[in-house]
Structure formats: C-alpha cells, structure tokens
Write a structure and sequence with these properties.
homodimer; nine-stranded mixed sheet; about 20% strand; about 375 residues
Chain lengths: ~375, ~375
C-alpha cells in the first residue's frame, strides 16, 4: 500500500459567515491549491465532507459545484457523509484514493453552513442521526452528553471543575488561532456559572454552531517532494475507522467510546506506534466530557484518569501531551463537515512547523474525529517528513 | 493495484414500499450477505449510497443504522452521495477500499425512500442539485431533458417515435424482472399519447419515483474463489468517474455528456478494452433521451446514430448489444441511491448466468450511472470469471 502525504492545507475563518456552503468550500479549496502550488485541473479526485447542505440550505450536489468553481473538471467527485465525523471520513476516502493508486493528486474540502438556522433547528438536524427509538423521546446529542458526564463524574470520582478546565484550556489555545470562532479566554467561574444546558453540563461545556470550511491536498509520499520541500509535507502513517451501536443505550459502558478504541487500534497498528509515541493531538471536544473519554480510549491515559491529566496541565500547550492546540471544537467552532478536516489541518501545521504562536514540538500527531455520540469515528496518525 | 471481484449481490423489490430507508437497506444488505455466504461481522467496510435520507424522511446516519442492523460493527462506514449517481460513486468507493488494501470484504448498499413524498416534492429535492443560477428560473431535470430531446431530434434528424421505442423496449425487458416497479409492456401509441411533461417528452419518457435498495459484496479477485465458486463471481476490470459543469447551459454541446465520455475513457483504458468489446450494458435512462446520449458517448454508436440502433433492434435483448436488460430505470424504477448499485447487480447477474429469462450471452458488461443531468458520472466495466 502506497503511503500518502499531505502537501497543502487551508481553513477559512470559522464563525458566523455571510456565505453559502458552496462559497465557503471554494474559499478553502482555492487556498489549499495555492498552498500546495497546484492548479484545480491537476486534481484527479475531489471529495467534499459535508453532513447536511440539503437540510441546512436546500443545496445538494456541492462536490459538482466545487469542481466547477475550482476549475477541477473533469475530476471524479463525491460527497462523504459520516454526520459530525464527515471530515474524518473524508480524510479516510482521500487517503484511500491515493493509497489505491486511483488518484495521484486528491483534494478534500470539508464545510458546513449552519448559523442561518436557529440553534434548535441545527440541533434537530444533528439529532436526526440518532435511532428513531431514541429520537422520539426527544434525545439530542447534548442530552447524551449530560447523562454521560454525570456517569463519568460519579464513576471516577472526578470533580465538576475538571470538565470546566477543558473549556478554559481550549479557549486559551483558541486565542492564538486566527481562524477560531471565539478568540477569548474564559475563566473557570465563567464556565461553571454559565447557563445550564444538560445537567451537569453548562453552556461553556458545548461547542458553538458554526460556518466554515477546511481543505487538504494529498499525494503519494514518493512524489511529495516534487510539489513541496521536505519538511513542508506530512505523512499519514496510520488511519482507522470504526462504528459503534446506533442505539446509544445498548452500549455496555457509556463512558467508553468503542469506535475510538477500535479505530485507534487499527491506526496505531498501521503506523507501528503506540499512544505514548504521540506528541500532539486534536480531539473531538464537541462537549467537554468527550475530551476525557477520547483521551482515555485512545490510550493516552488510564480509564477514569483523563480528568486528572487536564487538572495537572499534562494536556496544556506546554504540557507533555498538548491536546487541542487549535482551540478544539470548543473555541474554534464546529462546522460539521469541516471539523475533521480542520483537525488534520492543525496537526499538519504543527508537524510542518507552521503553527505560529500555537507551535509545539511534535514529530507525530493524531486527530480523532467523532460522529454522533461516538457512533462513527476516524483516527488519523501523521508523521513529520523530516 | 489489486483487481476487485464482486462475490454477492441482491436487490429488493423496487416500487412503492411500506418501509423506511433503514429497513430497505437492511433488507438488501441481509440478502447480499447471504448470497456471498458471509456474516455481517466479516464486513470491514460498509458503504451506503444515498442522496437524501435527511430531506426525504428526516433520518441521517443511515450507514451507522445499517452496520447496527447487519451486526457489522465495528466496520468502518460512510455515506457516499453523488446525487442520482450515488450508487455508481458507491461502487467506486467500495472498489477503491479493496484496491487500496484497506478492506478485504467490503459491502455497498444503496437505497432511497421517496414515494411517501409527492412527485413535486421529490422533483424539487432532486432539483436542489442544480446551480442556483438555473434553479431560480424553475429549472428541473425533466425540463433539461425536454430541451435536450428537442435539440437532439432537430440536430440528428431523428423521429420522435425513436424516443418512444426506448420506453417500449425497456418496459418489455422489465416484464421479466421480478424486482421491477412496472412489469407491463407498453406499446408505442401509449407512450406517444401519454400526457405531455416537458415537450417533446411525455409521461412514458420518464422514470418513476421509487423506493428500493440494492447491495453488493466486494473482495480481492485473488481470494474470490475462497468465497464462491469460479463463475459465480465477476471482476471489475475498469472503472472511472468524471464530473461535468455544474451549470448545464455552459456546455458547448448539450447533446454530448462530457462526464460519460471522460469516465468511460478511464474505464476502457483500465480494462484494456474498447466499446466494441462490451456485450451488455445498463445505461441511466432516467429519461428516454439519456439512453441515446450515453449509447453514443460511450462509443457504442456514432454521435447522432444512437436512435437508429434502437429503431433497428440492435439494443434489444436479442440484439447485438442488449441495453437495459433489467428494464432500466424506466421500468425498474429509480430509487436514487440504489439505481447505480442495481445496474451493477444486473450486470453481475448476466455475467454469472443468473439472469433467468433476461439472460443474454455476455462475458463483458458495462454500467453507466449518471448524476444530475450528466453532472457526475461513474462507468464500471466488469468481466465474467470464467
């Protein structure tokens, strides 16, 4: 199997944007072409990660629109949807296209336009991914998060404050991310005093509704240096995808995300490394509790000890294993189809030394993108090229 | 690149079904597992081809639901959308997963549930794939078809009756397809006297709105005989995907489908064959005029001569190049995400000698799945295994 490199990347400003998803995709796509130093018509496969352009704005066929706008015709195009982990699934599809030898230059652009809808409407579109047996009881992803957070705190004797510290950390990181939706620090009291959403989780435990887009350019590792200098590309050394039960209440232990365990096991094996080898990670902190669960299920910390790592600063930017140097979904925002792509964008920036004030020392990075409430997960491991 | 075999296939009855898309997908998926003699948990990658489960029935995350229902956890899952050619794009994704070595056993299930919506509603969901500059003028795919049919008849001096003969032929084939929505012959007068829809096209020039699902199981050719006897599998010898302009009026010649030309060029080259080598083909006859265009753009007939081939019986079941032995979208129905999968199902049945009363002599078959009005196209070429 051919190893696959990433030779260019971009993301738009995340936040409330006065542009439709077609326009956001084109903005990120053009910037990534420029970053890789290629033209649209060099692209052989063009994937779009997007969950719900039809539901959000009555526009489908967005890969066709993007191919048109980037002058990438007659590239093969498709939309990859895996709900909130569409971006990670798109990385998987793009990787696969190059690994198979079906495409030499593949572009992935993820995006979503959401803020023109009310939070209730957007939450309901997202909740449509749940099983009807749960949906009809009014279950949404935030409600699952509240229930799980309560169970986690009780089971592992973790203080409520530890969840708040995830938000504080990620907001602090986001200040240095020019693309982030929120570039402001928040203190712990602000988080703990914010309005209750799903007990024990409060407003600042949740990511916002966001518009935005991010893009990546892939090619075989063997030719990457023909496009950009060594050091300016990164290599996907391991990638895995896995699915958990559709009905969340059927899971034996709701504090373990099976999809994270299974997808990372595949990715670690392909990369020939273990969790201790990872230098920097982007996790799917749609809710603060999810950062704990993933940091444990990826093997970074023992089960029930993820909260301590945050308390002790291990996951701070200057800690032993910086997590969410981008600001995470929490401060950067969560435009569904873009988020998994933007995670890989951040790891790419870190591994190529282009993360500016967010830069940490890292040779190996990991991105974990979670769809639904752990329903579908893609874990991507990347290495620096020098 | 590893060659990829198809070792199992199924399709549900197409038509008006009292079942949601989740249920239709599971019905086809279970039957295909059984046909291949494998269990759900043997499946490593599970793809779902579907355009619009969210818009049609407020249910997203259907690959997760299907993995759950087939006991295929923790298989990697994703939804592949390429509008009306989602099925062909799904075949491409499934092929790629095996060709890349990322999955040994991959399942693809395509499906759509549409008939609970009015024809106007369904047509509008489909029209959401058009460019806003055209959509706002009320353009739908049927209206493009009418304009193109008029241009074709005028340019190539073809009689109106030739279009009707596509419908007559495909309905005749559909009588022998137990899965088809319409199993009745229609005579030419019935077609020509049916209600006008988009001049010169009338009701019988259009495929219906349909519910249904179809499924395929893929593995490397090198291990196919471990699952099913030689002769009972078929091999994908060539596959290509291509995209045309999003704005249809920007095409130089609307009677040529660039995506069909480009995707088939790639597929023929990969297969090492030419159009004359094809023994049987399934084309995307969403509208009768499309069968003419594709039969020419695939190189079966000279430009402007496709209508003559139909008039002369060349594409009849007992003709030199049988086209749409399944009954085509015209009589079989067109559940968007299922159609491209069902095309490959039919070719698979023909190449393995399991097409029953529809059986023709064929060693090489081709399926051409068209999204939008030629916006996105996947062409798949298959060979018999003995």
């Amino acid at each position: 199997m051919e190893r696959v490199a990433i030779i260019g990347a971009s993301m738009t400003r995340f936040g409330q944007r006065d542009a439709w998803v077609r326009e956001l995709l084109a903005e990120a796509g053009e910037a990534a072409l420029s970053d890789a130093g290629i033209d649209g018509d060099d692209v052989e496969h063009l994937y779009v990660s997007n969950m719900a352009s039809g539901e959000f704005e009555g526009q489908t066929g967005v890969p066709n629109a993007l191919a048109h706008d980037l002058d990438a015709l007659p590239a093969y195009t498709a939309r990859i949807d895996q709900t909130s982990s569409s971006g990670g699934a798109g990385v998987y599809a793009a990787w696969q296209s190059v690994a198979a030898g079906a495409s030499e230059l593949t572009m992935l652009v993820g995006g979503e336009k959401m803020t023109h809808r009310t939070t209730a409407e957007a939450t309901d579109v997202i909740a449509s991914l749940t099983h009807p047996v749960e949906y009809k009881h009014g279950v949404t992803l935030p409600s699952f998060a509240g229930l799980t957070a309560r169970l986690y705190l009780d089971t592992y004797d973790a203080p409520r404050e530890s969840l708040g510290k995830v938000a504080v950390k990620n907001h602090r990181n986001g200040v240095d991310n020019p693309h982030a939706q929120f570039r402001k620090e928040v203190d712990l009291d602000t988080v703990l005093d914010s309005p209750m959403v799903a007990d024990p989780l409060r407003l600042y435990d949740f990511c916002p509704i966001t518009d935005g887009s991010a893009a990546l350019v892939f090619c075989p590792e063997s030719v990457a240096a023909e496009y950009v200098p060594e050091g300016e590309y990164a290599v996907i050394s391991g990638i895995g995808g896995a699915t958990d039960t559709h009905v969340v209440h059927e899971r034996a232990d709701p504090t373990t995300m099976g999809g994270v365990v299974d997808s990372s096991t595949i990715a670690y094996e392909m990369a020939g490394i273990g969790p201790d080898d990872v230098d920097v990670a982007e996790l799917h902190d749609m809710f603060t509790i999810l950062e704990f669960l993933q940091s444990e299920d990826l093997g970074f910390f023992e089960k029930g000890k993820g909260w301590k790592a945050v308390e002790e600063g291990v996951t701070d930017r200057d800690g032993e294993l910086p997590i969410n140097t981008s600001g995470g979904l929490k401060s950067k925002g969560h435009p569904l189809g873009a988020s998994g792509v933007a995670q890989v964008y951040e790891i790419y920036q870190q591994l190529t030394g282009n993360a500016g004030p967010r830069q940490v020392e890292a040779d190996i990075g990991l991105a974990c993108n979670v769809g639904g409430f752990g329903n579908c997960v893609t874990t991507t491991i990347m290495e620096a090229s020098q």
